[in-house]
Amino acid sequence: MAVTTIAGAEVQVDDEGFMTEYDEWNEDIAKALAANIGIDLGETHWQVIKFLREDYKEQGETPMLRRVSNVGGVSTKELFQLFPKKPAKKMSYIAGVPKPQGCV
Amino acid sequence: MTTAQDAPSVVPDFGDEETDRRICFIASKGTLDMVYPSLVMANAALGEGIETHIFFTFWGMDIITKKHMDDLQFTWMGNTAMHPPGKKMHMPQGLAGLPGMTALATKMMKKQIADLDVPEVPEFLQMIADAGGHLWACKMSVDMMGLTKEDMIDEVEDIITATDFIELSDGAQVIFT
Question: To the nearest whole angstrom, how far is the Cα of B150 from the nearest Cα of chain A?
Fold first, then answer.
């Protein structure tokens, strides 16, 4: 656990660099985190990120890809295009929520 | 707790540099409990950015055959490990053979799978295909069962021979299920 500065704000992150405090997140931080991993956030990225944050708040856990697709309304194909290779980890990193814990 | 001064910004390693890791699953069974291992692991591998193939053969062909894919069954016949979820109690083998027992066991297992928010086979295959997974049908099984490409879901890329699969899986990790 460490404190680091992202987009001018001090935030707590875990050993891998994932934010650990839900309420420390803001959109500028998301842009900076996305830039860190080479993603330029477009409209659909934001739709996914906002869904992840709302769903995490309601359900208490990060949704898996299937839920992001079925409930969040962005298809699996699109998710792999928007967040290449490791969509589940990348989108949760940018959204400031923990990595998803499920198997599917 | 360290301070902002001594902790440089850490960026997770998403392994974006090209990886040559490839995984090929051989799905050879068509019982409900035995189709999930390859589907779950293939899906997980794709989510990690790994090139993933599934080669369907023998009873595993039912997983990609339109007529059967939504009607796979589970029985505990021959499975002495079977016990009701969470209970220390063995299900008598003889019970498994009673009429209707396979349907009941299948229904129960499907419910448990659905409760975990894990999709049924047709949706799962679509997810895997959408995630970039490659699905292959076994030539010998197709011939044995009198199937054609039209009997299978469109996501199956091709019907290939055992030799084709050996070539395809050169250098890959191969997992038989």
Answer: 24
